């Protein structure tokens, strides 16, 4: 046998041996994973699906997960704590079937490891729920988040920044744990899962409201009442302004009412006695009558609150009022009736324009003292009472109860003590000739001081 034939025989035998080894090895990879196969950081080369499944089950059930807060361990748990009991056979078989068993030599020679990945890991939801409920996530020592808010201090409105807090958002923590369990990760940082404020200090609406509240509380507001200036102090105005739960600016109308009532008590004249410089008796006290003015407090409250909000009409305000004599009170044109002296004067612009003796009410129906005013002028009137009906040429009523100034042609004399015997029912009986003149020069609205 020639050398050439011997060489061919040996080569054929060697080839058959190689083919046999290659084929035999390939056949073993029908049930085993190829060399250099990794799954979830586990080397599963040359292992069967059954073997790998057991190892993975053991690995996941004993796998330790660590949750941290601020870089420090808060708690840890294993796969069995949360109910990981998966059978990975199906996923492993799918991976195995996708491998080319005939490529085993190439896999051996390659430097690169083939990394495979399982489908997401499942867990027992009831087991997980029980585990989650026992975690140290809730504590009275944790700080709850707070929204930025406007605070009223002793002197202004401040925007207090939000408080971030460290109270966990349990829904987000739960979702993070589940995501970690289902992935290949083992460490979970919980730093991003705190409850958070919903309103921050840079909120444009909060800034706007804070600025507006401070602006309103620093307004200059004053009243000019009968030449007297009343300024609302900054401290008082600040006390009027507050915010409700929805951050609406509130002006306390009760406090505004209280302030305006103080002014009304101080300045209103309708219910007050007056010091009056009389012609014969010097300074006398004239009790209140129908003459005078008073604040319309409720109307002024509404007006002032509205003007504060619009920041208009705030300097030298004239209050809403009703009555007579605002700004001048008695002035220099008035009627003076001196009951003691049974005399009447009419002053016009500070000068006596007319004077006369009169007869006032008898003791049983006295003429009431007080500050009144002529509220009507009626010629040829008929005065009616319970037991009388008297025509007069000139009638000027001064109160709401039938008292007035009128001519009295039935009186033969005036002054002195005649009122004690022939006095009126309360009116001021005046000589007809004088009454005609007074009627001509005393307009409606003229104050009448009776004392």
Automatic annotation (TrEMBL):
It comes from the Bacteria. Pathway: Cell wall biogenesis; peptidoglycan biosynthesis. One of its GO terms (cellular component) is extracellular region. The active site is at 406 (proton donor/acceptor), 427 (nucleophile). The keyword Cell wall biogenesis/degradation applies. Keywords: Cell shape, Cell wall biogenesis/degradation, Peptidoglycan synthesis, Transferase. Pfam families: PG_binding_4, YkuD. Residues 333-451 form the L,D-TPase catalytic domain. GO terms for biological process: cell wall organization; peptidoglycan-protein cross-linking; regulation of cell shape. PROSITE patterns: LD_TPASE (PS52029). GO terms for molecular function: peptidoglycan L,D-transpeptidase activity; transferase activity. This is Ykud domain protein.
């Amino acid at each position: 046998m020639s050398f050439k034939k011997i060489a061919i025989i040996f080569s054929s035998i060697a080839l058959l041996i190689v083919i046999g080894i290659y084929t035999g090895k390939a056949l073993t990879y029908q049930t085993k994973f190829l060399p250099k196969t990794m799954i979830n950081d586990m080397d599963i080369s040359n292992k069967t699906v059954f073997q790998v499944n057991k190892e993975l089950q053991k690995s996941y059930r004993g796998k330790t997960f660590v949750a941290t807060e601020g870089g420090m361990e808060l708690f840890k748990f294993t796969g069995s704590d949360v109910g990981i009991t998966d059978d990975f056979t199906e996923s492993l078989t799918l991976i195995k079937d996708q491998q080319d068993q005939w490529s085993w030599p190439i896999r051996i020679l390659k430097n690169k490891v083939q990394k495979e990945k399982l489908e997401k890991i499942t867990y027992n939801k009831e087991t997980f729920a029980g585990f989650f409920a026992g975690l140290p996530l809730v504590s009275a020592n944790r700080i709850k988040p707070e929204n930025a808010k406007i605070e009223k201090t002793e002197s202004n409105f401040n925007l207090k920044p939000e408080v971030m807090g460290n109270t966990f958002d349990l829904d987000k923590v739960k979702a993070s744990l589940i995501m970690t369990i289902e992935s290949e990760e083992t460490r979970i940082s919980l730093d991003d899962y705190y409850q958070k404020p919903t309103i921050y200090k840079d909120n444009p609406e909060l800034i706007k409201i804070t600025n507006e509240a401070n602006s309103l509380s620093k307004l200059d507001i004053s009243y000019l009442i009968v030449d007297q200036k009343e300024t609302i102090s900054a401290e008082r105005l600040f006390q009027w302004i507050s915010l409700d739960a929805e951050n609406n600016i509130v002006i306390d109308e009760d406090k505004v009412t209280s302030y305006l009532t103080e002014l009304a008590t101080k300045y209103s004249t309708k219910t007050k006695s007056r010091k009056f410089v009389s012609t014969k008796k010097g300074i006398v006290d004239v009790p209140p009558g129908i003459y005078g003015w008073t604040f319309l407090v409720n109307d002024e409250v509404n007006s002032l609150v509205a003007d504060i909000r619009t920041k208009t009409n705030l300097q030298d305000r004239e209050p809403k009022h009703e009555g007579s004599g605002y700004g001048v009170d008695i002035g220099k044109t008035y009627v003076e009736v001196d009951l003691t002296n049974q005399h009447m004067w009419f002053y016009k612009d500070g000068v006596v324009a007319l004077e006369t003796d009169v007869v006032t009410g008898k003791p049983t129906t006295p003429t009431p003292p007080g500050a009144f005013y002529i509220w009507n002028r009626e010629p040829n009137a008929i005065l009616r009472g319970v037991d009388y009906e008297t025509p007069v040429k000139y009638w000027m009523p001064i109160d709401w109860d039938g008292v007035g100034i009128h001519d009295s042609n039935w009186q033969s004399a005036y002054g002195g003590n005649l009122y004690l015997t022939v006095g009126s029912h309360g009116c001021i009986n005046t000589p007809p000739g004088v009454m005609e003149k007074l009627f001509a020069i005393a307009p409606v609205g003229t104050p009448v001081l009776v004392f």
